[in-house]
Write a structure and sequence with these properties.
Layout (H helix, E strand, L loop, with lengths): L8 E2 L5 E5 L2 E5 L4 E5 L5 E5 L2 E5 L5 H22 L2 E8 L4 E5 L2 E5 L6 E3 L5 E6 L4 E6 L2 H14 L9 E4 L15
Antiparallel strand pairs: 1-6, 2-3, 3-4, 5-6, 7-12, 7-13, 8-9, 9-10, 11-12
Length: about 180
C-alpha cells in the first residue's frame, strides 16, 4: 500500500471539506478550492480526517492513490495556511515594485514589465533583500505565476543576472580567456 496514500489528511479548525462523489470542495479562511478526482478513488471523511482508499493493487490505482491524497493535502493546507515562493532579482539596476496589486519589473528592457496577479495570488517586494514573494492558496497557481515571473528574465550563466528562485543554483561559465 502507498505510504503517502494511506496517511490521513487532518482537517484543521476553520476548514470545511465537502466530498460529493469524485468532487472535493475545500473552503477555508484563505479561499476555496474545488477539484475532480478519479472516480475509482474512494474519499472518506471520518473524525475530522480525510482518508483515501483504492479498489485494488493494480499499478494505475497505486499511482493514483498517493497522488490523490497529496492533492487533497495541498488543498487543505493551502486554504488554511497558504503557499509562497521566493524569487531573487540579481543585476545592476534590476528592481521591482508594487503598483496597486500589480508587480512591475525593471530588468534591463526598454520598458517596464507589468505582471497582473490572477485571482487568489498576491505579490510582495522587499527592496532591501531584493526578493519577490508570490503568495496564494493554490499551490499549482503559485508555482506557475512564479515560473512566469522568472521567465521574464531568466538568470544568465556568465554574471548570474536575472530573476531566479531563492534556493536555485546557477551553473556559471568562465567567459572569455583573454590575453595571457
Amino acid at each position: 500500500m502507498s505510504r503517502i496514500g494511506r496517511m490521513p489528511v487532518v482537517v484543521p479548525k476553520g476548514v470545511d471539506v465537502e466530498v460529493n462523489g469524485a468532487n472535493v470542495r475545500v473552503k477555508g479562511p484563505k479561499g476555496e478550492l474545488t477539484r475532480t478526482f478519479p472516480v475509482s478513488m474512494e474519499i472518506l471523511i471520518e473524525n475530522g480526517e480525510i482518508n483515501v482508499k483504492r479498489p485494488s493493487d493494480e499499478s494505475t490505482y497505486r499511482a493514483l492513490h498517493g497522488m490523490t491524497r497529496a492533492l487533497i493535502f495541498n488543498m487543505v493546507y493551502g486554504v488554511s495556511t497558504g503557499f509562497e515562493k521566493l524569487l531573487e532579482v540579481n543585476g545592476v539596476g534590476y528592481r521591482a515594485e508594487i503598483q496597486g496589486k500589480n508587480l512591475v519589473l525593471y530588468v534591463g528592457y526598454s520598458h517596464p514589465v507589468v505582471m497582473e496577479p490572477p485571482q487568489g495570488i498576491s505579490f510582495d517586494w522587499d527592496a532591501k533583500l531584493r526578493q519577490i514573494k508570490v503568495m496564494g492558496y493554490d499551490k499549482e497557481l503559485v508555482g506557475q505565476v512564479a515560473a512566469n515571473i522568472r521567465e521574464v528574465r531568466p538568470p544568465e550563466p556568465y554574471k548570474g543576472k536575472g530573476i531566479k528562485y531563492m534556493k536555485e543554483k546557477i551553473r556559471r561559465k568562465a567567459g572569455k580567456a583573454g590575453k595571457v
